[in-house]
Design brief:
Layout (H helix, E strand, L loop, with lengths): L14 H14 L5 E2 L11 H12 L12 H15 L8 E4 L3 H11 L5 E6 L4 H8 L3 E8 L5 E2 L1 H7 L4 E7 L11 H13 L3 E5 L25 E6 L12 E4 L2 H14 L5 H12 L3 H22 L14 E2 L10 H12 L1 E2 L1 E2 L11 E4 L4 H17 L1
Parallel strand pairs: 1-11, 3-4, 3-6, 6-7, 7-8
Antiparallel strand pairs: 2-9, 4-5, 8-9, 10-13, 12-13
Helix pairs in contact: 2-9, 3-9, 4-5, 10-12
This protein binds pyridoxal-5'-phosphate.
């Protein structure tokens, strides 16, 4: 058989799916596993949103739509996303996609040529490295610093950016750390992006999940940045719609037109009834989101209190998303070894920091998008394991 291409040979599974499969295999053998590995809200999709999707199916909204999305939906997104960030966005700048992941992949394919360098956060969402490699680009990981609330090490950032850099990937609030990039850092990054004429791909999928009354800024708010930024957002986390597959990109119009062509040939369009559900999500009551955010804040605080009570384990208070990223370096084992032993010996599924890049060595990722009971049971089991170590 002919070998596969360099586009697919470097691809690896996402740690979360791999550990979930491992946990399920143990469960099939009768073991009880506490799940703190999968970054998926435990809330059901709000009823008004599901009903809108069902009503759309009943009304026959089951056909192709324009590849970039139903015009009315693009207009609703332009208005909503613009208000959220204090920006004026034209519906022609909005491209609807099947989840946010195509919003990461397609702009990378459109912007990164073979040999172009792409800066991205380490530890970071595994799709970043995958999409850079598939595009033929050169991944240039930039470390996040725990002491800076997991924002970039700006000295390394400055040393890494050059005329070879085509794209900078940002993720704030971030997966796996929950860190929010401070506005001064965004201004610094924007200055460098303008100086080196780079694009920015700003993954803002957790932008509504910010705690303690804070908010996360978009780099696109900074002067002259909207014209070189792709904002990526979606419905999976904010409206608990992971399985509906709904997201969008906001880009300059000329790029949006290219992305529409990529969608035309790659996926055709996003499911019509899913888009109708999305319209209801953005135009209906936002009480669900507010309730979910305050519940996540309560869970974050409880998980943090329990984790930080474990001797030798220390977690920063994350300002966003639904992850904590405790430092376990004092135990002298690799993250992978600890994560593997936690699932085998304590029955708790967590991810190794290194599932998100080499910069995650010495950390674990724990999800608090689970009930308070699951948080307490999981962290208590972890604590017992660490004590017996
Ligand atoms: C940082 C980040 N970006 C993008 C995604 C993809 O989300 P979607 O379900 O919208 O494709 C995720 C999902 O976990 C994520 O954590």
């Amino acid at each position: 058989m002919q070998p596969f291409t360099d586009r697919v040979t470097p691809l690896r599974p996402e740690g979360a799916y791999a550990v979930l499969a491992q946990a399920q295999a143990l469960e099939a053998q009768g073991r009880k596993i506490v799940h703190l590995e999968i970054g998926q809200p435990d809330f059901p999709t709000p009823a008004n949103v599901s009903e809108a999707g069902i009503a759309a199916i009943r009304l026959g909204k089951t056909k192709y739509t324009p590849p970039a999305g139903i015009p009315q939906f693009r207009a609703i997104i332009a208005d909503y996303a613009g208000r959220l960030r204090g920006l004026k966005i034209d519906p022609a700048q909005v491209v609807v996609s099947c989840g946010s992941k195509p919003g990461l992949f397609f702009p990378t394919l459109a912007l990164v040529a073979s040999g172009d360098e792409v800066l991205y956060p380490d530890p970071g969402f595994p799709t970043y490295e995958a999409m850079i490699r598939v595009a033929g680009g050169i991944p240039v990981p930039v470390p996040l610093r725990e002491e800076k609330q997991f924002s970039f090490d700006l000295d390394v950032f400055d040393a890494s950016i050059s005329e070879r850099t085509k794209l900078i990937v940002l993720n704030s609030p971030g997966n796996p750390t929950g860190g929010v990039i401070p506005f001064e850092d965004l201004e610094h990054i924007a200055g460098k992006a303008r100086q080196h004429n780079c694009w920015v791909l700003s993954d803002e999928i957790y932008t509504q999940l910010v705690y303690d009354g804070d908010s996360a800024h978009s780099i696109a708010e900074i002067d002259e940045m909207l014209e070189r930024t792709v904002i990526v957002d979606g419905f999976s986390k904010t409206y608990s719609m992971t399985g509906w597959r709904l997201g969008y990109m906001i880009t300059p119009v000329a790029l949006a037109e290219r992305l529409e062509l990529l969608i035309t040939h790659a996926t055709g369009c996003t499911a019509a009834f899913t888009q109708y559900a999305g319209m209801e999500a953005l135009t209906g009551s936002q009480d669900f989101v507010a309730g979910m955010v305050s519940e996540y804040q309560r869970r974050r605080d409880r998980m943090l209190e329990l984790v930080n009570a474990i001797p030798g384990v220390h977690a920063q208070k994350p300002q966003g998303a639904f992850y904590i990223f405790p430092n376990v370096k004092s135990y002298g084992l690799s993250s992978k070894e600890i994560a593997t032993r936690l699932i085998d010996e304590a029955g708790v599924a967590v991810l190794a920091g290194t599932d998100f890049g080499a910069g995650g060595e010495g950390y674990l990722r724990l999800v608090y998008a689970v009930s308070m009971e699951v948080i307490e049971e999981g962290v208590e089991k972890m604590a017992a394991w660490f004590k017996a170590f």
